[in-house]
Design goal:
Strand content: 5-15%
Oligomer: single chain
Shape: elongated
Length: 271
């Protein structure tokens, strides 16, 4: 009974839709036929009165028919331009956003003159937050950190525990220097990280987010994004350190680290 009831509703809706479509099609065809009739009438008028065109030649039957069909087909083709015009407008917007990103000059630069270049053997890895205050540029009225003090000792595991929005992710972003604090200092082995060469610092530390960020490329290529000059041995060792090497050998078959992972790793298992 329910099937028949809902089927009758769909039948009624479909009938109304088809009737509207039929009237629309009929209107379009009526317009074309009226245009044909007017074209033949006006063309006959030009022929009957021997009216000449701008070149001084008389209108022949072939010219009149050619003009008629050119006008009809041109109007029909112009009507199909609307979707393409929308695509052009969307591409202009996307292009502007892309160029804005390309032309953007960041306040925090990877390599600044006069900064300290870190060497692996000289870096201990001790971080300290001294009276750090921070607000995001897009939310200047909301202070995330206020007089925050903490020491992350080298060689020890430090856990940050707190509710959502308490600043845990913000602290990690300050450690990576994705942002600079609005007040206080972030020290690395006693040096303000603003005085440390950012590129050399990021080459010596690792960050594992809550969700993986993978590009539509192979495992090898994704690894090389982090260190373009990495050797085969370094890639394999990094995968072993991440407990991924055995999984790759077992699941990827002969392709191994040359397996394509898809956009955002979509070709890999979510687990």
């Amino acid at each position: 009974m329910n099937y028949k009831k809902y089927l009758s509703r769909c039948e009624e809706l479909g009938a109304k839709t088809n009737i509207k479509g039929a009237f629309g099609f009929a209107g379009v065809m009526t317009g074309f036929l009226c245009f044909y009739a007017y074209s033949f009438y006006f063309g006959g008028y030009l022929r009957w009165n021997d009216i000449k065109n701008f070149d001084g030649r008389e209108y022949s039957g072939g010219v009149i028919v050619a003009i008629m069909f050119s006008t009809v087909f041109g109007a029909a083709t112009a009507g199909t331009m609307a979707p393409h015009a929308k695509a052009i407008a969307e591409s202009q917007i996307a292009g502007k956003l892309a160029y804005d990103t390309i032309d953007h000059v960041p306040k925090i630069k990877q390599s600044e003159k006069g900064t300290k270049v870190l060497q692996r053997e000289d870096m201990k890895g001790s971080y300290e937050f001294k009276n750090v205050e921070f607000t995001y540029p897009s939310r200047k009225d909301q202070k995330v950190l206020k007089s925050f003090n903490c020491v992350f000792e080298a060689g020890k595991t430090t856990a940050l525990v707190g509710p959502s929005g308490s600043g845990k992710s913000t602290i990690i972003q300050l450690l990576e220097r994705f942002y600079d604090p609005t007040g206080g200092q972030v020290l690395l082995d006693g040096d303000d990280i603003k005085t440390v060469n950012l590129q050399s610092m990021r080459q010596l530390i690792g960050y594992v987010g809550q969700e993986p960020v993978l590009f539509n490329a192979s495992i090898r290529e994704n690894m090389l994004f982090a260190k373009p000059d990495a050797s085969e041995e370094e890639i394999i060792q990094a995968l072993k350190d991440a407990n991924a090497w055995s999984f790759i050998q077992k699941k990827m078959g002969t392709t191994g680290i040359d397996t394509q992972v898809g956009g955002s790793g979509g070709q890999l298992s979510g687990g």
